Amino acid sequence: MIFENVHMIYESGLSGHVYALRGVTAFFPAGSWTAVVGSNGSGKSTMAKAAAGLGTVSSGRIMKEDGVLTYIVLQNPDSQLIGETVLEEVSLCLAADGSIAGKVQLVRELLEQVGLHVPLDTLVTTLSGGQKQLLNLASCLAAGANFIILDEITSMLDPASRALVLEAVQRIHRSGTAILWITHRPEELGFADRVLAMEAGQVVYDGESRHFFYPQDGEEGSPCERLGMELPYTVRVVRQLERKGYSIPERPVHARELKEVVRALCLS
Questions:
Q1: At 19, which CATH number?
Q2: DSSP tag of 196
């Protein structure tokens, strides 16, 4: 998917034109994981909806390669659920052909893939917020999506549920599905191959997540700090270790990498 000089302008009765996106140019390759971060009003959710075809581009264009099928999961876990049971919800997204038994087996496999371990006749209304987001992910897979847009899908979840959803998305990504991950949580950026930072509808950073958190030679602070965002706990720990004189060649960006760094320091 390619954004080419995309502008999205909304009409406002008070201030006239409001620019939600200002000349955004970005390329999202097949199989990639791009995280988009920014404060409220920065344009990140507008970018998500534009990528999903839910908004009208004022100028510029959004191009999709042949065979790219995009689906979006929204912030509120309940906003997209229409089935009464887990089986019904996922089945609604499956192709019409195939036997009933075959469909049931496929639903079981999709639920296993996202880590939702509940009986098929479970009422959707009884699921937790995290389970509902896992169900939404399973429905995307049932529809054959190979480019999934996730618009702050962990923002209404508790830490344990956020971890389960992130694990599910990592498994989906490893299977070759492209991920566009919209978030306001810097600690979630380390799972992505690449970070786009948004400010006032514009892309103000486009690069590797590691560089986003750690200053390069000659830089005064990291891009994350220069944009006024809080560093994740993992990065704060590493920066403190470096100030104490420890050399950490491969700077970690999430907890499992930090665990290995600490283990190596303890053994050295």
A1: 3.40.50.300
A2: E
| Contact (Cβ atoms closer than 8 angstroms) between residue 74 and residue 102 | no
Question: pTM of this prediction?
Answer: 0.91
- Residue 242 belongs to a domain: no
Strands, E, within 187-256: which ranges?
Answer: 194-199, 202-207
Q: Report in angstroms the alpha-carbon separations of 116 from 30, 48, 105.
A: 26, 25, 14
Between 100-114 and 129-142, two packed helices, what is the crossing angle to 10 degrees? 130
pLDDT tens track for 190-214: 899 999 999 999 999 999 988 999 8
Query: Token match 């809080």: residue?
Result: 230
Which positions ≥6 away from 135 have C-beta within 8 Å? 81, 86, 89, 90, 111, 114, 116, 124, 127
12: left (phi over 0), alpha (psi -120 to 50) or beta: beta
Give domain status of residue 130, yes or no: yes
Q: Are strands 178-183 and 33-37 parallel, antiparallel or unpaired?
A: parallel
- For residue 252 the two structure tokens come to 């970690």
Q: Specify the DSSP class assigned to residue 233.
A: H
